[in-house]
Design brief:
CATH class of the largest domain: Alpha Beta
Number of domains: 3
Keywords: DNA-binding, Transcription, Transcription regulation
Strand content: 15-25%
CATH architecture of the largest domain: 3-Layer(aba) Sandwich
Helix content: 25-40%
Protein name: LysR family transcriptional regulator
Family: Belongs to the LysR transcriptional regulatory family.
CATH superfamily of the largest domain: Periplasmic binding protein-like II
Shape: elongated
Number of strands: 11
GO molecular function, one term: DNA binding
Number of helices: 9
InterPro entries: LysR_HTH_N (IPR000847), LysR_subst-bd (IPR005119), WH-like_DNA-bd_sf (IPR036388), WH_DNA-bd_sf (IPR036390)
């Protein structure tokens, strides 16, 4: 009988290509990974890795088993989900990761809703941008809250992943409370803001994509723009009058004082925020109630952020597209 834990390690090795990378992804030591793969080789009576003093790579047999491991692990989870669905009682541990701004925004409502299910345990972790979908695919976590600035259909990894759309999160203008444009009667004109002191995330940070797209029509961000990591840091500096910034509206959930916020024009850049799960886990009651809690939190954030921004006749700013529309994603089961 093949050990499922060892098959998972082999699958991760196929993904990362090194013992060290596999160990880091799974939270093991490199020696533990190497030992488990050696044990798997004894189980199948075949060499799975070609090892040298400095590297290791899959043999043809190793590649074949890694491909089969992907299917085996998905089938096992699907079977577990089907059995769990028979009880219709959410239970067990659900691990959710989210990028920092989303973790702060979603945590209160998630905890409030899921604490009603006594047999469930929620683990919410902050994750680096761009890592969530991979961790779900690898089976390291159950749900990832991720953002996407591309506007393209999400990568389902050949149907392995499902994306449930939570929010469309537009860029908004963050200003010191005493800035002239804090007055909602004054129109926002980007050309007139070209010479302001802009504060932006460094190049390579996801939110910087939105800032660069926003300012592209007026020649891009000023060369003297201040660059700081972390939206919390940026908003703190804006509140102190250091400059102005374009930030995703979700950052405003933190409720920093000393700030005013204005809408950009209707075509301002925005990002889509998704909950990502494995398709094989969709029938688990604990996953279903977690997705519903995330959707409830997203709906309440829409209202909260709409109240925070001055009313300009546009209604809510974080609109979820209808299922089936581009970017709409999937929906939890009924």
């Amino acid at each position: 009988m093949l050990d499922l834990r060892r098959l998972k390690i082999l699958r991760e090795f196929a993904e990362h290509g090194t013992i060290a990378g596999t160990a880091q992804a799974l939270g093991y030591t490199a020696s533990a990974v190497s030992q488990q793969l050696s044990a798997l080789e004894r189980e199948v009576s075949a060499s799975l890795l070609d090892r040298t003093a400095r590297s290791a790579e899959l043999t043809d047999t190793g590649r074949l088993l890694a491909e089969q491991a992907e299917q085996i692990l998905a089938l096992v989870e699907a079977a577990e989900s089907a059995l769990a669905a028979q009880t219709d009682v959410p239970r067990g541990r659900v691990t959710v990761t989210a990028f920092p701004t989303a973790a702060v925004a979603f945590a209160p409502k998630l905890a409030e809703i899921l604490r009603r299910h006594e047999r469930m345990q929620l683990v919410l972790r902050q994750a680096m941008e761009g890592t969530g979908a991979h961790k779900v695919s690898a089976g390291e976590i159950d749900v990832a809250v991720v953002d996407d600035w591309s506007g393209l259909a999400p990568d389902t990894r050949a149907g392995k992943l499902r994306h449930i759309h939570l929010l469309r999160d537009p860029m908004v203008l963050a200003l010191p409370a005493d800035h002239p444009l804090a007055d909602p009667r004054r129109p926002v004109d980007l050309h007139r803001l070209r010479d302001e002191a802009w504060i932006a995330a460094p190049h390579g940070e996801p939110s910087r994509q939105g800032t660069d797209r926003l300012l592209a029509d007026i020649g891009g961000a000023p060369s003297a723009a201040w660059e700081f990591e972390g939206l919390g840091t940026i908003l703190s500096l804006v509140a102190r009058g250091i400059g102005i910034a374009a930030v995703p509206a979700l950052a405003l959930v933190s409720g920093s004082s000393g700030l005013a916020y204005r809408r950009f024009p209707e075509d301002a850049p925005s990002r889509d925020i998704y909950a990502v799960i494995r398709a094989s886990s969709l029938r688990r009651p604990s996953i279903d109630v977690t997705l519903r809690a995330l959707l409830t939190a997203a709906s309440e954030m829409d209202e909260t952020l709409s109240d925070t921004l001055e009313s300009e006749g546009h209604g809510g700013i974080l609109r979820r597209p209808d299922p089936g529309t581009p970017g709409g994603g999937d929906q939890p089961s009924a």
